[in-house]
Amino acid sequence: MIKVKKEGIVLEKRTLGFEWEGVLNPAVIKHADHIHVFYRAVAKRNYSSIGYAKFKSPFEILERTDVPLIFPQFDYEEHGIEDGRIVLIDDVFYFSYCAYDGVNALGALATSKDLVHWEKKGIIVPQIMFHEFKRLAETKGKINEKYIRYNEHDQIRERKGKKVLVWDKNVVFFPRKINGKLCFLHRIKPDIQIVSIEKISELNTDFWQNYLLKFKDNIVLAPKFEHEISYIGAGCPPIETKEGWLLIYHGVHDTVKGYVYCACAALLELENPKNEIVRLPYPLFGPELIWEIKGEVNNVCFPTGTIIQDDTLHIYYGAADSRIGCATVSLSELLTELLRHLKYY
What we know:
Layout: E1 5-11, E2 22-31, E3 34-43, E4 47-57, E5 60-64, E6 80-89, E7 92-100, E8 105-112, E9 119-123, H1 130-137, H2 145-151, E10 158-159, E11 162-163, E12 169-173, E13 182-187, E14 192-197, H3 205-213, E15 219-221, E16 231-234, E17 239-241, E18 244-255, E19 258-268, E20 276-279, H4 290-293, E21 301-309, E22 312-319, E23 323-330, H5 331-340
Antiparallel strand pairs: 1-23, 2-3, 3-4, 4-5, 6-7, 7-8, 8-9, 10-11, 12-13, 13-14, 14-15, 16-18, 17-18, 18-19, 19-20, 21-22, 22-23
């Protein structure tokens, strides 16, 4: 098994209103000699915004703002901006996040040229009710019954005066265009799906209807091993290596004490990331320390950002939905360990 080192807690909540309940699930990017961390901050009654910290080194904070950098401004995100991921593509920073309106949780996007001023592009995933999703997705045959279990919402179609939609979260962009196209992962439980487009403006109702007609063709990863058997979701932005796109994702399994979230690893083909090359048959790491086991949500390691220094991969993750930790692993050793399992494919 691959050796992973838990480096400890790198960010905790302060006695500020906007992060009163906790800080977690950070978007992380290294740019201009600094590490920029855009973390989810949770106020009372589970209202989330995005706080910002600049790091001098992987564990050394240089500065941290005392007000949110990105905060709810529109109806579709009025209850919170959650769980960001960030990449730089062609001199534009893409910050994808989960927009929560109190009923629906959907992937949204903001872009920036300077990491300070952000232009919100709105929701970029399908806004569709489950019965509509099922009708389109089953054009080529029955979908996995887990799609019904996780997305039917007990057949409730309206709540608080709003339509109850299929939750589509964990939008994570690849850090470069692939064959000239923007690509991103997203997650309708229980699997991870992929989208490839020329430009963001393509993501309209017609696009998603055609996409869902071929829904099964767009599934990248599905739960396979015991530690991820309930559902999976994209985690950190994919890392380009000579062996393929290294994807650190999260896997979830149900226990008598509730769901357990762990960090997982897989490789996808470089020029066609719809194709899985291999994945680890065991968790990369999971909740084992007290601050990962006990918190706002127990038993959670939720990876959302990475940086690489020399051969060391730093993985930043939300721990028990309360604080932010970091784990490190040798990148070369991780790739070797993944490829060792090719014999099972």
